[in-house]
UniProtKB/TrEMBL annotation:
Organism whose genome encodes this protein: Aurantiacibacter xanthus
InterPro entries membership: P-loop_NTPase, TraI/TrwC_relax, TrwC
Residue segments, region Disordered: 967-1032
Alphabetized NCBIfam families for the sequence: MobF, relax_trwC
UniProt-listed SUPFAM superfamilies: Origin of replication-binding domain, RBD-like (SSF55464), P-loop containing nucleoside triphosphate hydrolases (SSF52540)
TrwC relaxase domain: residues covered: 11-279
Compositionally biased tracts (Basic and acidic residues): 987-1011
Superkingdom assignment: Bacteria
Pfam families found in the cross-reference section: AAA_30, TrwC
Name recorded for this polypeptide: Conjugative relaxase
Length: 1032
């Protein structure tokens, strides 16, 4: 593993010279050594001396020049590369010294890459300090062999001085931002190098975790645990204190860290290790002998034999089937003779990069090249290192199979890439939007729209609501957008739109479907349907029903679809959550079938789609006709409206400061949040939601609250033990790799999958074989599948893996569903309460007060979880009176501006933010927007997020201006009066809209629209549905 830490002081460098290296200088000349291009430039080579080392850390060069002598100067960074425990055991107990040399080679190769790609200084450009790549580092390597508990633990410190030589020849301080940012990339590169060298020594390896980590096969788990005293102490302390979170374990690690124990006699220490291993029957000699025999039994072969073996191994191990190996339609992999001339490792590198592109492309339209390389390495294909991966990426960039991003760096270095497919998808979104411009007749006349909308609404609509509604019913453009901040009253506006549209069609709401709501998830569909009073369905089911028109625009089926959607208004709720591919298909279907209106409604600052793209923001940047709803009608008081406004503008740090005393800082912040909720009176608990940024915090809060409620007697004394299943967050491509499968997981086959010979249903993963095959059971018989046979080009989710988790439930428990049961009205993410546990089963009550008894063994009893706390990702679309939100400064990706914005805009009255470190959290959020990528934005063709001053120039001549829909000044006291200066398709009227033209009256229960007849989708196959945020 790799860890990175700041060197606190040059004076503390003596610790690197401790005599704890068993293989002394007589046996290994590399116990310490200078390395790096910067060191060579300074004439530093060979063994590291303490005095010279301290001077370098203090910024003093050998010639006496002092660099970067500022207050609070940082001496440097310590990157520690630790061998897998099994490698340490084989090196120090079995005595395989080859492993130590292999480890040093792997570290040097990794540091060479780090120096070439991540060494940077900063240069003043127009008053800004910008990073400049330098390609040189000054660092020293120290090889040590024990842990703090004196267990065998081979590790190498690469201590990097705060120095680098700029292109102009001047020495200055190192800018280490790229080193910190890419620490996981560096870890994957190191593990790939070391794994390759271990395999070349004749050992077999097994994958163990993230970032390419592995162990040597054959070193038993009990041996590893025997020499993991430090880990045992930490886990024991955590169990004693009841700590379950990763951050809690980190705190224990720091608080229980004792100085290294005395070495004593090194020969005695090594003998103690050998004797200790012998107590479990291990000495490693047979394992080492087998490894040596494995690499010596086959001498070098001739060139023809090697060529034959290369092709055979590439076909056998990398593809499994000749048909797949020679697949003709994969632009990411060479074909035919070009493929046959490659070595096995080159072939595997091609497959690794191809898979990495598909893994990343499912979630993002563009990605950093370093992340692409890491993703390829983490697939752990034999022999593939960063050298092979970068060579292949460069080849794809040269061929145009990958498209380089536009560099925004002063040194011109390209860091991002995308695919031609992603660019075509985004260009199609813009093209379809333009095709619909001016292609429909207004539902009602523009001059009449505001009055008709106001008359249809049961509350007073403000200017923004009227403008948005008027645009939907009056614009001549087929595709329009409503950009509304959270709490702007979009649902109220849509109720009026539905009433006006139905009245214009002269039909009752229970007849026909001239207004159809679309949403991402089943629960959102139900909420939308109840909120606007119109039939609604998931986007996925709508696309499935109509996707045939994308391929054929003729015949009876096509004509029937046109007739069915004639005069239909499609209202897409929470459009920021719709992927680029789905948006493109929606637009194309709307144009092909002549849909009356496709209105995209949402907030581009809220949660983005799970899959690639930010289409809602893209269409706004590309000039869609748009209405803006900027008045916040939700937040009350003096503080929350200000906090919400700041969060919406991306000023999250300032928003946190405005919260003032409502921010609670506590190192045990997760427990503190749970305790705060438990201290509330029962009626206040009902009004107060708990939000957590990630799965780990949510689970810990849920467990602590369950314990508290049980202790106070709120929950029933008797409990029911359940095994529930949580989705494993894997892409379609990742499911093709057996390393992501393990015994005990549950496989959900949502559609028949002919490549695997599996029908729809649930299967237990019984065994993962060494050859990559998976053994499954459906309870009646066993199946053996090869996940590599799954098509790499599938565009829909057909399979899903879930992992088991044990929980206990009690009477009175609040739960949420993690899957859909349409027949019984149980929606994924919807809440319910357990009101009884008995011999007949578990009786639950839904939020609509309906009761249902689930018999023991019912599948839905494995598709639930505790729901005292919810993920912030689930909060979108929810409105609560009060909330307690938990955010952690150490959550690098989850503590971002979008999640913060979603959280603070859910609350009407009061928000308490509970954090571990306020200042660190602010810094983390401010540098993490949480935005999705755009292919067109990455290549510099459009500025989606509006950060560039040249945004207008990018769009000039290509797209046209963004059209803001502005109805002008609306006389709310006389809505029948004509409105000057406004038309739906030329919205730049003479009179600008004014603020504060109306306030929405607080809706009461009598304002709920009557329930519409549901759409009959029973003829459709059940659709897979991912749970937003629960996989994080």
């Amino acid at each position: 593993m790799l860890s990175i830490a700041a060197v606190r002081s040059a004076g503390g460098a003596a610790g690197y010279f401790a005599k704890d290296n068993y293989y002394t200088l007589e046996e290994s000349s590399e116990a310490s050594s200078w390395a790096g291009e910067g060191s060579a430039d300074l004439g530093l080579a060979g063994d590291v001396g303490k005095e010279g080392f301290e001077k370098i850390l203090n910024g003093e060069l050998p010639d006496g020049e002092k660099v970067g002598q500022v207050e609070n100067r940082r001496p440097g960074l310590d990157m520690t590369f630790s061998m897998p425990k099994s490698a340490s055991v084989m090196a120090y107990i079995a005595g395989d010294k080859r492993i130590l040399a292999a480890h040093m080679e792997a570290v040097k190769a990794t540091m060479s890459w780090v120096e070439k790609n991540l060494a940077e200084g900063r240069k003043d450009i127009d008053g800004r300090k910008v990073p400049i790549r330098t390609g040189n580092l000054v660092y020293a390597l120290f090889q040590h062999d024990t842990s703090r508990a004196l267990d065998p633990q081979g590790h190498i410190h690469a201590v990097i001085a705060n120095l680098t030589k700029m292109p102009n020849g001047k020495w200055q301080a190192l800018h280490n931002g790229a080193l910190w940012k890419n620490n996981s990339v560096i870890g994957s590169i190191y593990h790939a190098f070391f794994r390759d060298r271990i395999e070349k020594l004749g050992y077999e390896v097994t994958s163990t975790g993230k970032h390419g980590t592995f162990e040597i096969a054959g070193v038993a788990k009990e041996v590893l645990e025997l020499f993991s005293q430090r880990r045992t102490v930490i886990l024991g302390k955590a169990l004693e204190l009841g700590i379950r979170t990763a951050e809690g374990l980190r705190e224990i690690t720091k608080n229980t860290r004792d100085p290294k124990l005395s070495m004593g006699d090194r020969e005695v220490l090594r003998q103690e290790w050998i004797d200790k291993a012998a107590t479990v029957g291990f000495d490693g000699k047979d394992l080492m002998a087998a490894a040596i025999e494995r690499i010596t039994r086959n001498p070098d072969r001739g060139i023809m034999a090697r060529g034959y073996e290369a092709v055979s191994e590439a076909i056998r191990s990398a593809r499994g089937m000749v048909a797949n190996f020679l697949r003709p339609n994969d632009p990411l992999v060479d074909r035919g003779l070009a493929r046959l001339t490659q070595s096995p490792v080159e072939a595997r590198a091609q497959l690794a990069v191809a898979s990495a592109v598909r893994i990343l492309s499912q979630r993002e339209a563009a990605w950093e090249l370093n992340v692409l390389a890491k993703t390829a390495l983490d697939l752990r294909l034999k022999g593939v290192t960063i050298t092979h991966v970068e060579s292949r990426i460069g080849n794809l960039l040269e061929k145009g199979t990958l498209i380089p991003g536009k560099s925004h760096r002063h040194d011109g270095i390209v860091t991002m890439a995308t695919t031609p497919e992603a660019i075509r998808t985004e260009e199609a979104i813009i093209s379809e939007m333009e095709k619909g411009r001016g292609m429909v007749s207004p539902i009602i006349d523009a001059a009449d729209a505001p009055a008709r909308l106001q008359a249809a609404s049961k509350v007073t609509l403000n200017a923004g609501q009227l403008a948005a509604g008027a645009m939907i019913v009056s614009s001549r453009d087929r595709i329009v957008a409503v950009q509304g901040i959270a709490g702007a009253g979009k649902s109220t506006m849509l109720q009026a739109v539905v009433e006006v549209a139905h009245a214009a069609a002269n039909i009752a709401k229970t007849e026909g479907h001239n207004v159809l709501g679309l949403a991402f998830q089943t629960k959102m569909v139900r909420d939308l349907q109840e909120g606007i009073g119109a039939p609604s369905q998931t986007i996925a089911s709508f696309l499935l029903r109509h996707q045939h028109v994308l391929h054929r625009q003729e015949g009876p089926r096509y004509e029937a679809a046109r007739e069915a959607l004639k005069n239909t208004v499609l209202l897409v709720d929470e459009s920021s959550m719709v992927s680029s591919e789905q948006t493109m298909k929606l637009e194309r279907i709307a144009n092909l079938l002549g849909v009356e209106k496709l209105a995209l409604i949402g907030d581009r600052q809220q949660i983005s789609s799970i899959d690639a793209g930010k289409a809602f923001a893209l269409v706004q940047a590309a000039g869609v006709t748009i209405a803006r709803m900027d008045e916040n009608l939700r937040q009350q008081g003096d503080i929350l409206p200000v906090v919400a406004a700041l969060a919406d503008r991306g000023q999250s740090g300032e928003a946190i400061r405005v919260l003032g005393e409502n921010v609670i800082e506590d190192k045990d912040h997760i427990e503190r949040a749970a305790d705060m909720w438990l201290e509330l009176a029962p009626e206040e608990r009902e009004r107060t939601a708990l939000f957590a940024s990630g799965r780990e915090a949510r689970e810990h809060i849920n467990m602590r609250i369950q314990e508290g409620l049980t202790a106070e007697g709120t929950l029933g004394k008797d409990s029911l033990a359940l095994t529930i299943f949580e989705r494993v967050n894997l892409t379609r491509e990742e499911l093709r790799y057996s390393q992501n499968w393990r015994a005990g997981l549950k496989l959900d086959v949502m559609f028949r999958t002919d490549e695997l010979g599996l029908g729809k249903g649930l299967y237990d993963v019984v065994k993962v074989q060494k050859n990559g095959k998976i053994e499954l059971s459906d309870g009646k018989r066993r199946f053996r599948i090869d996940p590599q046979k799954l098509s790499p080009h599938a565009s829909e989710d057909r399979l899903g893996l879930s992992e088991p988790k044990s929980i206990a439930i009690h009477e009175g428990e609040t739960i949420r569903w993690t899957a859909n049961d349409k027949a019984r009205g149980l929606d994924n993410s919807a809440l319910a309460k357990i009101i009884g546990i008995g011999a007949a089963g578990v009786t639950i009550e839904t939020t609509s007060r309906e009761q249902l008894t689930l018999p023991h063994g019912d599948p839905m009893l494995s598709r639930l979880d505790l729901a005292y706390a919810l993920n912030m990702h689930m909060a979108q679309g929810i409105t609560v009176d009060k909330a307690i939100a938990v955010m952690s400064s150490f959550e690098r990706f989850l503590s971002n501006q979008r999640l913060f914005n979603v959280t603070v805009t859910r609350v009407r009255e009061a928000l308490m933010l509970v954090v571990d470190d306020k200042d660190r959290l602010i810094a983390q959020i401010e540098r993490t927007p949480g935005n999705k990528t755009s292919a067109l934005e990455t290549t510099g063709k459009i500025d989606v997020d509006g950060r560039s001053e040249q945004s207008a120039e990018m769009l000039a001549g290509m797209l046209g201006e963004t059209v803001d829909f502005d109805p002008g000044e609306i006389p709310l006291d006389d809505l029948a009066a004509p409105i000057e200066g406004w038309s739906p398709d030329n919205p730049k009227g003479d009179k600008p809209a004014t603020e504060g033209q109306g306030k929405e009256a607080k809706p009461g229960s009598d304002l709920r629209a009557p329930d519409p007849d549901p759409i009959d989708l029973d003829s459709l196959p059940p659709l897979p549905e991912r749970t937003l945020g629960l996989d994080l």
